[in-house]
Design brief:
about 450 residues; alpha/beta; 9-stranded mixed beta sheet; 9-stranded parallel beta sheet; 15 helices; binds zinc ion
């Protein structure tokens, strides 16, 4: 902690906020509490009716609603540059016709720009902790971009040593190269700053048995998380059955990929026995409701996973299959899809808000994220004060999930530091970033041999 000229502790006092608070009980309930927040370094150190200390920096909350920074469990930083380049296709065609050729054309510069675009959008929408699913190469540049911003990020290079051909063939690596890259990234970044490394097979169709077993052994030996896609689309499940002659989760289990540190993105098509298998394994589910809608994949049984005690985080997935990276959008879609699937009220707004805050943080094993408590990291989202578009505040979960959008976000604090003010990034020059992205995207399309 640095000392001010007066010798007082270098702290910041946010006065006059209305802070989101979880109420204890059988079900998840939220309420707002008038409070001041004291922040020292990157932590919340006091909450309540607080008198300013000598030398303390004062910030007026002006009755703003303060939410914890949002947590997203599944985002592809490397695909943000591809937004609008892969619309209106089902999963397998979306991958083979667009995403794999585009990922194969990535270079170090385009990965870096795509990471900055992602961070710009995530922070603007209040996401302050994320698990990212990257491409085969150059993931060190995504780690570096997250480290420079101070993002809490779990990232991994995509493992892919089979299943691609034609113009995408260059995307695949050998299993030896995949493990070399994985080891180098884990050595360089795991457990440092706010970063962690996850072993990240794309899905069971993209890895040989040799690589799957070696990668799982590496994860277990190093105590690393595993992050993969599973059971997303019916056509994918049919290919898995044809290749392995067994069910998807059986394949993952036999490979050593299904356990308490495993996060499974999607899990749209899982029968009750499979759901129980996920619960018994201790694995987590990463729900991507907007991507599931846009790719026509289906509605995941999130209510049932929740009932079984499976930890759930939400994620925007990739910009080319969403096409936004906003936690509030995902919360709204998740609640609405469960209403569509099982009827309104059984997986209500409070569950959705929980899954982009404390619940999502629990799913990602980030105990100091997703809540506003003494000792938590000072990741905060402050909404615009007195916004008539928000409606009644009697039920804050309803308001945040069903009415509030990213345009309502005024200030974002990342580890106590303002990274968004008046809804604008203080980290990135938005215009410059857009111009660099356009130039980089044009070069990438040229390398991929695509006109658009
Ligand atoms: Zn994904």
């Amino acid at each position: 902690m640095t000392a001010t000229p007066s010798g007082a502790a270098s702290t910041t006092l946010w006065r006059g906020l209305r802070v989101l608070e979880r109420r204890d009980g059988d079900d998840v309930r939220f309420a707002l509490r008038r409070a001041d927040l004291r922040i020292a370094a990157d932590r919340i150190v006091a909450i309540g009716d607080l008198a300013p200390e000598v030398g303390e920096r004062l910030c007026e909350g002006d009755d703003r609603i303060a939410l914890p920074g949002f947590v997203q469990g599944h985002v592809h930083f490397c695909q943000t540059l591809f937004r609008g380049l892969a619309d209106d296709l089902p999963l397998l065609e979306w991958l083979s016709q667009r995403i794999w050729p585009l990922e194969a054309a990535h270079d170090e510069e385009s990965i870096r720009v795509s990471a900055e675009l992602t961070l710009h959008e995530l922070l603007g929408g209040g996401t302050t902790a994320v698990m990212g699913f990257e491409t085969v190469r150059h993931t060190e540049h995504t780690f570096a971009a997250c480290r420079e911003v101070g993002m809490t990020a779990i990232l991994g290079n995509c493992l892919m040593d089979t299943g691609v051909s034609g113009p995408s063939a260059a995307l695949a690596s050998s299993s030896r190269e995949a493990m070399r890259i994985s080891t180098e990234l884990a050595d360089a970044f795991d457990g440092r700053d706010r970063l962690a490394y996850a072993v990240t097979p794309r899905f069971v169709l993209s890895v040989t048995e040799e690589l799957a077993h070696e990668a799982a052994a590496f994860a277990h030996a190093r105590g690393l998380r595993i992050h993969t896609h599973a059971c997303e689309h019916q056509a994918e499940l049919a290919l898995v059955r044809a290749r392995f002659h067994r069910e998807y989760l059986d394949v993952l289990a036999a490979q050593g990929m299904l356990g308490p540190r495993t996060s499974l993105a999607h899990c749209v098509h899982v029968d009750p026995a499979g759901r129980e298998r996920i619960a018994a394994s201790g694995a987590r589910v990463l729900h991507c409701p907007n991507a599931n809608q846009k790719l026509g994949s289906g509605i995941a049984p999130i209510y049932d996973y929740d009932e079984r005690g499976i930890p759930i985080a939400l994620g925007a997935d990739g910009a080319p299959c969403n096409n936004r990276l906003c936690a509030l959008d995902e919360a709204r879609s998740a609640a609405r899809l469960q209403a569509m699937s099982i009827g309104p009220g059984r997986w209500p707004a409070a569950r959705a808000l929980h899954s982009i805050t404390a619940g999502g943080a629990e799913a990602l094993e980030l105990p100091d994220c997703g809540r506003i408590e003494v000792g938590s990291r000072a990741d905060l989202v402050l909404l615009r004060p007195a916004d008539p578009d928000h409606g009644a505040e009697l039920d804050v979960a309803s308001m945040v999930v069903y009415a509030v959008g990213r345009e309502s976000i005024d200030v974002v604090l990342l580890g106590g530091r303002e990274v968004v003010r008046d809804g604008r990034s203080l980290v990135f020059d938005s215009r410059d970033l857009a111009e660099r992205a356009a130039r980089t995207r044009a070069r990438l399309l040229s390398r991929a041999g695509l006109s658009r």
